[in-house]
Amino acid sequence: IESFHCIATGTKSLSQFRASSSCSWPSSLAAKKGEKKTKPKMLSRKATCNSHGQDSSYFLGWQEYEKNPYDEVRNPTGIIQMGLAENQLSFDLLESWLKNNPDAAGFKRDGESIFRELALFQDYHGLPAFKNALVEFMAEIRGNNVKFDPSKLVLTAGATSANETLMFCLAEPGDAFLLPTPYYPGFDRDLKWRTGVEIVPIQCHSSNNFRITESALEEAYQQAEKQNLKVKGVLVTNPSNPLGTTLSMHELNLLVTFIDSKGIHLISDEIYSGTVFSSPNFISIMEVLIQRNYMNTEVWNRVHIVFSLSKDLGLPGFRVGALYSNDDMVVAAATKMSSFGLVSSQTQYLLSAMLSDKEFTRGYIYENQKRLKKRHEMLVQGLEKAGIRCLKSNASLFCWVDMRHLLSSKSFEAEIELWKKIVYNVGLNISPGSSCHCTEPGWFRVCFANMSEETLNLAMQRIKAFVDTTTATTDSTATNNNQSHHQSNKNSRRKSVTKWVFRLSFHGRESER
Q1: Are 22 and 45 in contact, with CB atoms under 8 Å apart?
Q2: Which of the following is catalytic: 58, 65, 184, 221?
Q3: At the N or C end, where does the chain have fewer CB atoms within 10 A?
Q4: Which letter, b or e, does each residue of 399-424 get, where b requires 16 or more Cβ atoms within 10 Å of its Cβ?
Q5: Alpha helices in 44-126 (DSSP H)
Q6: Are strands 176-180 and 231-237 parallel, antiparallel or unpaired?
Q7: Among its keywords, does the record have S-adenosyl-L-methionine (predicted)?
Q8: Is 110 a catalytic residue?
Q9: Strand 265-269 relative to strand 303-308: parallel, antiparallel, unpaired?
Q10: Is 328 a catalytic residue?
């Protein structure tokens, strides 16, 4: 047991594990000599470790929002939630389909109830009709440039489960995956907490709009080796969370070449693939492999995709995720693991009917992307009026916002100070870049698709008023400093003149003597 916990936490010895600040020994097990022994707590190390990542500012912002949530009528001065990447822009399209398809919503087939059939136990392979409909939907989002085999698809309870399952399949506790920064804060929980896998950052910078480079990949790999970590793969989000940008063909080729040369895996988290609302178009990693004729190589089996209906279809509460792999052993192991987080039969039946309706899916994809583009423009333009710019983006449910000019100093302490002001004083919950492991302070992720247009306009009014006040205060302080400096110089000149007159008078008297 001791060995397992040491491995799971990345420590080399039991003494190091005991010394870990996040996993301290219970006081009952650390009784001083002579003290009466108490009954040890009947909890596991996992339960008592503070390694979940819940204390991140990303999650703390949610907690503050929940204490004081904005409501147009009941709480108009409350905190507006702009830290949650939910797509609420196209619910009316989904609701319209449900109204026009009462059999699917009522669990009927040809007018006859199949409630009992769906209520009984289903094995973890999933309903064939749903898996077929899901892979066709995935292909449609990608412009049918690539096809997917339903036998290589494993259903999971959301993308969180899919990513963790892949970690269990591909890595041992203490192994590492490389992730480009900034990255989704939840990965610290999803990839590490239960698996014992380590994350090594691929450092990306604003100087090239946070693009992945060959040198950054190599530096991250070497850094892992210095830490005595065995690198098992690279994980990327495409489109990027939190950047809201799609990976370029150049970056995708770099990644494939890199994992080929190192003999490691590549996970492409493509849960935002259906949110691309402007050029350049989304390119799936599978398209790159096919174009480079990797189908019958080892690399073909070392590339895996994560997909979900949480973002593209706006159904995070349905908990529908999937992983796709060309490796039969990965598919077999992941299928067995999926029994710990299955998608309900009722959900599968309903969505298989919805996704099989090609007229609906075509119309939904087009209209949803159109609405996302409009909402994205509202946020960007609203922030521009406040003197704040965003990284140019073409996808997802958020923008990567540059507030470096509002920092009191170029430090992450100043970033958190600014974040607290925005949460508590302005009443907006946004995610600081440090929670996304950004290398530069002053960047924030701001979501725009989980609220009404009226609420977004109010949020923009609040941030503009804050910036205007902050700028006015800064200008006033600078003016006062300049005036003080001017007065100080004036007084200094007076003193100099006085001293000069005194010396001149004294010199004259000496001459007269």
Answers
A1: no
A2: 184
A3: C
A4: bbbbbbebbeeeebebbeebbeebbe
A5: 45-48, 57-67, 91-100, 102-105, 115-119
A6: parallel
A7: yes
A8: no
A9: parallel
A10: no
Note if 70 is an active site residue: no
How far, in Å, are 10, 13, 35, 44 from residue 27 at the CA level?
23, 20, 12, 14
Q: Considering just the CA atoms, what is the radius of gyration of the chain in Å?
A: 29
Phi, psi dihedrals of residue 475, rounded to the nearest 5° = -65, -40
What length does the chain have? 513
Q: Which two tokens stand for residue 425?
A: 């004083």
Cα dihedral 104, 110, 113, 118 in deg (nearest 10): -60
Query: How big is the CA angle at 403 (ends 380 and 209), to the nearest 5 degrees?
Result: 70
Q: Residue with structure tokens 């990949």?
A: 217
**What residue type is assigned to position 78 of the chain?**
G
Q: How far apart are the C-alpha atoms of 310 and 317, rounded to whole Å?
A: 7
Helix, strand, or coil here: 94?
Answer: helix
Catalytic choice (271, 305, 388, 422): 271
| DSSP code, position 305 | E
Torsion of CA 196, 202, 206, 212, to 10 degrees: -130
pLDDT mean for each 10 residues of the chain (513 residues): 39 38 38 50 80 75 93 96 95 95 90 86 85 96 94 95 96 97 94 94 97 98 97 98 97 98 98 95 96 94 97 91 96 93 91 96 96 97 97 97 96 97 96 96 97 97 94 61 54 48 39 34
Residue type present at position 436: C
Query: Which one is catalytic: 175, 190, 269, 327?
Result: 269
